[in-house]
């Protein structure tokens, strides 16, 4: 059993489990920072119970001492506050170091009562009260230890001392064994200079045990005293010790059985487990050694009471038998307890490992472990010591006072519950198999009835004591130390009413069809009789008034297991499943029987799983005790009895008569077969079919039962739910016993009948329609897998499965078309262009051109996950290294769906390609505003290639017109998506240019779509010209002009000379004067006419 945060715990016997009262605890609060409650013990001063509490850091009130420690004896009352003046009503300090208590009024002497020299400061910080133990019996004795008490003058040796007290807490003897003649201190702590006797202790009427963990450099050891009372007149003390015999043959250090620092004696107990030597006078001492082999161990020392000096030494068993820890640093053996968990007369052993660390399969961390070792229940031979204990259970008195006498035990986890502390209670059992590792009761200190005058409790469970009845109500109680809050809590046990719950029925199993006088609408019904009685051993206890009904009885139906319905209903119940009635009158004299009718409705289908009924009893009008004020009498818990936690509840499973043979176990043998209807196979045996958008797939299933009844028979059909619609049963072939029960994702469940009788054959048809669903995966292979089963036992499940693949051929015709808007365009010349650094507005660059692509599917089959990839001229690469934009992209290319919704292609490195100059764009010209709808940006880009136009190198930029996980769905010509690329001319230092972009359709081949790809490509071109010729700015050569002028003049002179020689200039014409006048007049008239 793994327990959270068990850093220290204490185990004890004879406590109660479920009946410990937490509503009315009794508190004792000690001096501040005194570690009040470091150790606790339930003790009896004669017959009067007292609480014996150690406070090892308290001031002893002896003059001349500092924090010597103190022992307090406290009566059981409601006075809880410590006062500086001793208040007997709260507690009284017990003076244990001197027989004469007057010595406490004087400073410590240099010699004790035995004339042994004591260090002058030997009582300071001696930790008196670090170990406290009591026999817990009336007129019993106790022991108190101070493990750091120092002896000798000049040199201080921490020998330690223990004080044996009588029933009245007076000193009877002192245990101090590290000052013997043979125990040398010459090598100081390497020999016997630091024994620390009393680090652990144990006492009963026969044996006194003390641990000496510091002996021989902290090898450790144990000292034991046995009181032999076999003589009627005298009793003899027999001492045994490991001290001084460590290196002897068989000693704890012989053959390095133990070494320095092993801490033998860290915990000590004794018992009789079944070793060969054990009897009434000889027993076994058990000691924890927490650092042995780094993981800890538990060693066994035989105690032989033979009156012979040769047996004075106490050595381990002849073979060195021990129990070893499982984990380094676990502290295995930190605490131990001896109990008889199964009342077989042989003691069992419980070992704590508080530092063991454990992580379960869910990743939860657990700290601390308890190991439970059941004895074999018989004596073993001398060479079979390893057989004394059975395999441990990883996790003392008879808590619940059960009739079997099993001892129970408790475990303290002082740092659980955020440091408040938790106590876990466990039951004994008849053997290790029936031992319940689940705690019977969990007591959290944070949930105790805390007095409002107290601070929150801390570290409760650091020390525990139990097994004694300190309030005289016949039930043992529990004492809890909360050391970090200097508080001790006494938890008392409530008395238990030991009733017995049972039932009776006429038949041990139910008939599925039958029953007498069953209610309307029921399939079957039956009688169930509840029986309430009292354990005869406790029938004389009058804890309640049996002259009237003091209990509430309840009968309820429960699911037999997780996922199973309750099914059975109780006649007369309001909700059908629960029925309450008053009961218990005269129960101490006779048992009570009550008959009930239960029925099962016709709608029930589960006849294999048994019914589960629960009959329980609770106390009527039960109240809780309250916490009394200081000084008030304690609450009498006899007025608050509780029912036995386990016998007050009775659960029963009721099976059905399933008519499946003598053993009532149904062994069915289902066989499943199936085939595709109207679908042929190819040469390889594969099923292949061509499908259109309205095609369907039909499967014929045949189920046969070749065995016994098959209850709750079902068929589970797995299919491609993203390709096929939810299947339907063919109505013309449908059977009443076959129904679609449920479907989820890709599995549909058919109920086939309840039951399917032997030899029955069930045939049914299932129809699938191809589903058209945007954004889902497509495939050309459909997978079908079906299996049948039932809640009966299947004898042969190899023929319960059918699986097949179907290849579907999907025909479609995708087409990509496009248009340029406009088809011809004009652009300004270089003189009109601004420098790149002065560009600011969209108007500062060239005119806009749009390339619009359309994807059309001409069918007949739909296609999903279609991508369209585009390229457009992006950059001009000059030989001198200068780069200019060819077409300037102002916004992301746009996809317009048939419903006018808009999506965008997400261009990779958009800052470099989409409006890299950050020009101001006219919002009214955006596609979104033109359509008046917003779209979604989607994915993805791909680099294009470089191609050549004469004398100009163009870099292209590509993108995918696809939604990625939500791709374009090309359905038909009426619902075709449109892709728009909106760009502007940028580079204009050309006479003419043809602008071309190209697109191509991409369909994933695994879809299995057959498509003619000849029209899956398209190119859009736009022609562009300058809007006016270019101006010539080149200089004209001057010299050729001058030479041309001179040559012209020479030719003109030659012509004039020839004309003159011929007399050309001497000829006269008639009317030369008037003609000139007429011409001038005509010119003036024309000019005047124009002016008018």
UniProtKB/TrEMBL annotation:
<dbReference type="GO" id="GO:0033631">
    <property type="term" value="P:cell-cell adhesion mediated by integrin"/>
</dbReference>
<dbReference type="GO" id="GO:0007229">
    <property type="term" value="P:integrin-mediated signaling pathway"/>
</dbReference>
<dbReference type="GO" id="GO:0002119">
    <property type="term" value="P:nematode larval development"/>
</dbReference>
<dbReference type="GO" id="GO:0009887">
    <property type="term" value="P:animal organ morphogenesis"/>
</dbReference>
<dbReference type="Pfam" id="PF01839">
    <property type="entry name" value="FG-GAP"/>
</dbReference>
<dbReference type="InterPro" id="IPR013519">
    <property type="entry name" value="Int_alpha_beta-p"/>
</dbReference>
<dbReference type="GO" id="GO:0007413">
    <property type="term" value="P:axonal fasciculation"/>
</dbReference>
<keyword id="KW-0732">Signal</keyword>
<feature type="domain" description="Integrin alpha third immunoglobulin-like">
    <location>
        <begin position="814"/>
        <end position="945"/>
    </location>
</feature>
<keyword id="KW-0677">Repeat</keyword>
<keyword id="KW-0472">Membrane</keyword>
<dbReference type="InterPro" id="IPR013649">
    <property type="entry name" value="Integrin_alpha_Ig-like_1"/>
</dbReference>
<dbReference type="GO" id="GO:0009897">
    <property type="term" value="C:external side of plasma membrane"/>
</dbReference>
<feature type="repeat" description="FG-GAP">
    <location>
        <begin position="22"/>
        <end position="83"/>
    </location>
</feature>
<dbReference type="InterPro" id="IPR018184">
    <property type="entry name" value="Integrin_alpha_C_CS"/>
</dbReference>
<keyword id="KW-0812">Transmembrane</keyword>
<keyword id="KW-0675">Receptor</keyword>
<feature type="repeat" description="FG-GAP">
    <location>
        <begin position="318"/>
        <end position="382"/>
    </location>
</feature>
<keyword id="KW-0130">Cell adhesion</keyword>
<feature type="domain" description="Integrin alpha second immunoglobulin-like">
    <location>
        <begin position="660"/>
        <end position="807"/>
    </location>
</feature>
<feature type="transmembrane region" description="Helical">
    <location>
        <begin position="1038"/>
        <end position="1060"/>
    </location>
</feature>
<dbReference type="GO" id="GO:0001764">
    <property type="term" value="P:neuron migration"/>
</dbReference>
<dbReference type="InterPro" id="IPR000413">
    <property type="entry name" value="Integrin_alpha"/>
</dbReference>
<dbReference type="Pfam" id="PF20805">
    <property type="entry name" value="Integrin_A_Ig_2"/>
</dbReference>
<dbReference type="Pfam" id="PF08441">
    <property type="entry name" value="Integrin_A_Ig_1"/>
</dbReference>
<dbReference type="InterPro" id="IPR048285">
    <property type="entry name" value="Integrin_alpha_Ig-like_2"/>
</dbReference>
<feature type="repeat" description="FG-GAP">
    <location>
        <begin position="446"/>
        <end position="508"/>
    </location>
</feature>
<dbReference type="GO" id="GO:0008305">
    <property type="term" value="C:integrin complex"/>
</dbReference>
<dbReference type="GO" id="GO:0010171">
    <property type="term" value="P:body morphogenesis"/>
</dbReference>
<comment type="similarity">
    <text>Belongs to the integrin alpha chain family.</text>
</comment>
<dbReference type="GO" id="GO:0005178">
    <property type="term" value="F:integrin binding"/>
</dbReference>
<keyword id="KW-0325">Glycoprotein</keyword>
<dbReference type="GO" id="GO:1903356">
    <property type="term" value="P:positive regulation of distal tip cell migration"/>
</dbReference>
<dbReference type="InterPro" id="IPR013517">
    <property type="entry name" value="FG-GAP"/>
</dbReference>
<dbReference type="InterPro" id="IPR032695">
    <property type="entry name" value="Integrin_dom_sf"/>
</dbReference>
<dbReference type="InterPro" id="IPR028994">
    <property type="entry name" value="Integrin_alpha_N"/>
</dbReference>
<dbReference type="GO" id="GO:0007160">
    <property type="term" value="P:cell-matrix adhesion"/>
</dbReference>
<dbReference type="InterPro" id="IPR048286">
    <property type="entry name" value="Integrin_alpha_Ig-like_3"/>
</dbReference>
<keyword id="KW-1133">Transmembrane helix</keyword>
<keyword id="KW-0401">Integrin</keyword>
<dbReference type="Pfam" id="PF20806">
    <property type="entry name" value="Integrin_A_Ig_3"/>
</dbReference>
<protein>
    <submittedName>
        <fullName>Integrin alpha chain family and FG-GAP repeat and Integrin alpha beta-propellor repeat and Integrin alpha-2 domain-containing protein</fullName>
    </submittedName>
</protein>
